[in-house]
Design goal:
Blueprint lengths: L1 H9 L3 H18 L12 H10 L5 E3 L4 H11 L7 E3 L12 H10 L7 E4 L2 H10 L3 E5 L6 H7 L2 E3 L17
Parallel strand pairs: 1-2, 3-4, 4-5
Helix pairs in contact: 1-2
Length: 174
């Protein structure tokens, strides 16, 4: 399907090519079990529970589909800790565009300047920057180097377990 989409694109029909390619990716996503690629890093569940128990609203802003994200969070046993899930298919433009964060803000009732984005990729942090959130925290999971994250994040931490609740939601600076 992807080869056909490429050929159709080369012939000038971009919209048809995009639909065919999207159908191929959707089929691939639907055929994978929710657990595919899902790993909960050490300490993440406990940190999410702590943040949640302190009254913070938690959201997922992802390029993955809404359905797969819900299934993955359920598989990992942390779905009940999130107030909002915004998938790439819920918005017009996905990361690094601000759309997923802005939609999460809309659904939670928070303004972007009241929100902290925590992510492990340049597109996560850039998405937060584009949404003009209060703070962008880069997490070293092995996905993006410390140097790369330091160039765009307000703070870089070694583990999500370092995210702490404080009255002003400030965390240690770089």
């Amino acid at each position: 399907m992807l080869i056909a989409a490429s050929a159709i694109y080369q012939c000038g029909n971009r919209n048809a090519a995009k639909r065919i390619a999207q159908d191929a990716y959707d089929y691939a996503d639907d055929s994978l079990k929710p657990s595919y690629g899902c790993v909960l890093l050490e300490g993440v569940a406990e940190t999410l529970k702590l943040l949640n128990s302190n009254g913070l609203k938690l959201a997922v802003a992802t390029t993955d589909s809404h359905k797969r994200t819900e299934e993955s969070l359920r598989f990992l046993g942390v779905n009940h800790l999130f107030d909002v899930i915004v998938g790439g298919d819920d918005v017009e433009n996905s990361k690094p565009a601000p759309d997923t964060v802005l939609e999460a803000c809309k659904q939670t009732g928070y303004a972007p300047d009241e929100v902290v984005v925590v992510g492990d990729s340049l597109s996560d942090i850039t998405m937060g920057r584009n949404a003009k959130v209060k703070k962008c925290i880069g997490v070293l999971t092995g996905f993006t180097s410390k140097g790369e994250l330091q160039r765009v994040a307000d703070v870089v931490i070694n583990s999500v377990t370092e995210v702490k609740v404080k009255s002003d939601l400030a965390v240690k600076e770089k």
